[in-house]
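During the second half of the funding period, the structural biology subgroup turned its attention to how the target accommodates small molecules. The most pressing case was uridine-5'-diphosphate, which had performed well in the primary screen but for which no bound structure existed. We therefore specified the complex as follows and requested a full 3D prediction, including the ligand pose.
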Amino acid sequence: MSSSRPRRIALISVHTSPLAQPGTGDAGGMNVYVWQTAQCLARRGVKVEIFTRATSSADAPTVAAADGITVRHIVAGPFEGLDKRDLPAQLCAFTAGVLRAEAMQRPGYYDLIHSHYWLSGQVGWLARERWGVPLVHTAHTLAAVKNAALAKGDAAEPRLRVIGEQQVVAEADRLVANTDTERNELITMYDADPGRIDIVTPGADLDCYTPGSRSDARAELGLPEEASIVTFVGRIQPLKAPDVLLSAAAPLIERQRATGRRPVHVLIVGGPSGSGLDRPTALIDLAAELGISDAVTFLPPQPATRLAQVYRSSDLVAVPSYSESFGLVAIEAQACGVPVLAAHVGGLGVAVADGRSGMLVDGHLIGDWTTALEKMLSSPGQLNAMGRRAREHAEQFSWEHTTDALLASYARAMDSFAGNRVPAVGVTPLVRATRRWGRRRARM
Ligand code: UDP
């Protein structure tokens, strides 16, 4: 095994800062991923510098965020109010800021670049060429995958993004995929070279997310003591399908009411993001239309320690997403000893052990989700057993484990790059990808 290890890495996260509160706007699992792995890398002696776009005039150019971790805020476009869709036009400004920051350092300052999401991959691609160091890229989500499973009324990702992703896939030295499913998507939808893909499963903070007293958690959050609580955690957007959960829970709530049995309560935690369903009031309106407003609690995005209490207060956590490259919420809930009911899409098939730590549902038919909810909630003994197995299942997914695999990927990138320093000429992977793209367009 190779022992190549970077001393200092440039980690690029253009569109969202690891210092932002996840669960609303553009901040979600990627922020948690970047921050958690940066901390693990720093503890192992790798210096991490994170480049992100300044989104406030109060953002200092550099912030010593933790031991061994510096966040560099790059000015590229207006601080506030710039939509993610407008970011491609700011990539030149952002890249100029990244190159300038490096130029102020001694030569060979960074040993490796790790880019997160395609916008950062574009920046990393150019930095790789300028600095002569390898680029490792993690997509986090892929437009072609998302477009193949769009929620009703959700806007398709633009072709511009698919092209941009394809370029990064062709140019990166290594690609990090969350699961085997994502690896296959990269190969079949983006023509990725299978030999350059590493599967690195994400993790959860297993010290923060632990089982605990359900009644204490409910008392702290002001939730009903005598109810079955089904929880949704994440950004309120069509892709995450919180509306499917509300619609599926409604008949169950009605039935329990009519029969006087243990009530069902839905807890929704997170803020708006994206377009469509994400009007802050859209879900509140839906609950009112369904006649279940009194059985639904909405909470704004919560920091991790309080989110752990959210999970502990729940009988069940639902992840009904249309597409999910992994689904950190599913692992965090299980780490708290709570079973998960999830859509059988993307990485959720790995994140949830079907029938053991939770259940997977095919498709998004409301009736199927009502049946699945009822099945799980109606047998408390089985739910408790699943909860115990859920913690065991989650223990396989730690950020330390993720970091071991990332370091192995970095070593591969450094070794292959060392043997291939001169930029390729002629029919490069990029030329091949571009030709294929042209052929596809011609057939459209
Ligand atoms: N999250 C949070 N507070 C909230 C809601 C979500 O900290 O109120 C975090 C959550 O802990 C998880 C992340 O946001 O780590 C969401 O990640 P996931 O992979 O489930 O979804 P993504 O945002 O990547 O689509």
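Two results from this model are relevant to the next phase. Residues 399-418 form the longest helix (20 residues). The chain has two domains: 8-203+399-443, 214-394.
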